[in-house]
Write a structure and sequence with these properties.
By secondary structure, the protein is mainly alpha-helical. It is built from 5 helices and no strands. The structure holds heme C.
Length: 113
């Protein structure tokens, strides 16, 4: 990530924090839960997807979808029971993923042009 983009992303996040403190708090807790539960290992720190996991952000799916998937998956991803990952934490993770900004248009990044 280059410096300009980091600054821009920081400014955007700052604005989001001012705009909706309660949601931002949930997103903050969600970031912690996303890291603590190891979601990042397969889905990337920003939920952008990686070699193992599908992208979860931006364009995050509804909480009901994510909950159903995380509780019941029997595929490549291990399921997380409510005991391990309570619904409240999952809601925070959803808020975190929703707060991830969309990637900028590559044409808007001077270094890439
Ligand atoms: C061991 C790697 C791994 C970990 C850890 C992991 N995932 Fe996944 N996840 C995957 C893979 C692989 C898929 C695609 C699986 C499939 O389609 O069966 C997936 C799919 C998903 C999907 C469905 C996406 C879609 O668009 O259908 C959601 C939601 C999801 N993961 C959320 C999470 C959350 C939240 C956590 C942490 C609590 C997490 N994952 C941890 C590997 C992982």
């Amino acid at each position: 990530m280059n410096f300009k983009f980091a600054t821009l992303a920081g400014a955007a996040l700052g604005l989001a924090l001012i705009a909706n403190p309660a949601q931002a708090q949930s997103a903050d807790k969600g970031r912690v839960a996303f890291i603590k539960n190891g979601c990042w290992q397969c889905h990337g720190f920003e939920g952008q997807g990686g070699q193992a996991g599908l992208p979860l952000a931006p364009n995050t799916k509804p909480l009901a979808y994510i909950t159903a998937f995380v509780r019941n998956t029997r595929g490549a991803m291990p399921p997380y029971s409510e005991k391990i990952l309570p619904n409240a934490d999952l809601a925070d993770i959803h808020a975190y993923l929703q707060s991830r900004p969309a990637a900028p248009d590559p044409k808007s990044i001077p270094l890439l042009n």
